[in-house]
Amino acid sequence: MSRVTPHLGILAGLQSEARCLSGAGHTIALSGARLDGAHRAADSLIAGGATHLLSFGLAGGLDPALAPGTLLLPTHLLTPDGRSIQVDGAWHARIRTLLAALGPVTTAMVGTDEAVATVAAKAALFARTGAGAVDMESHVLARTAGGLPLLIVRVVADGADATLPPAALVGIRPDGATDLAAVLYSVLRHPSQVPALIRLGRAAAKAQATLRAAARLGGPTGFASER
Predict the structure, then answer these.
(1) pLDDT (tens digit per residue) in 13-25
(2) Dist CA 129 CA 141 (whole Å)
(3) Which domain CATH number covers 102?
(4) What is the rounded radius of gyration, in angstroms, for the C-alpha atoms of the chain?
(5) What pLDDT was estimated at residue 2?
(6) CB hemisphere CA count around 167 (13 angstroms)
(7) Mean pLDDT across 192-207
(8) Is the residue at 210 inside a domain?
(9) Is residue 3, in this structure, part of any structural domain at all?
């Protein structure tokens, strides 16, 4: 019986997240931080022959104890319909060892179909689920996995005490690149958001630094699954 060669499929939202990863033996698909984009990206990974699936990138903090830049390595994911999906235990244990220097937090994450943008919305979701952070891609990938090994590696970008300014919600193109024109237009319409936008930029820079460090520690092929 021939053995299937492992192939890692990675779902991320942004081009800046994807740039943290390097190496052969994996495929990266981008959602553009959109729900429909996440579905298309997840489907493309499956169609492309992925045998292991990784959700990688930034997340919104729900737990006030998790500061921007905190590495998240959840043991399970809560879906919008209330299901709990476990990640692959052996894969999780191996990556947790590799990333130990970064102090990964194993709290649950929750997936949502819409952006959770305000402090009040984050607090309500935290109270309802107890999840440490939220994103819009991991639950889509989990639903698409169909039993394939799943791992989630995320980093808190905006903390529980941060409301996302309007420019942050419109500033991403479908291909995952920054839409500078949309950001500038939003700022011109609502200049009062500039301080919040600057704070978010600083927090995102911390998160990106953690992502890059995690990718380096993950090995020469990123987060390649156990061969």
Answers:
(1) 999 999 888 665 6
(2) 20
(3) 3.40.50.1580
(4) 17
(5) 46
(6) 24
(7) 95
(8) yes
(9) no
Is 187 among the domain residues?
Answer: no
**Cα–Cα distance measured from residue 123 to residue 149, given in angstroms and rounded to the nearest whole number:** 31
Confidence class of residue 221 from pLDDT cuts 50, 70 and 90? low
How far apart are alpha carbons 106 and 185 in whole angstroms?
39
Domain membership of residue 18 as a residue range: 8-162+206-217
Cβ–Cβ < 8 Å for 141, 71 = no
Q: Does residue 63 lie in a domain region? A: yes
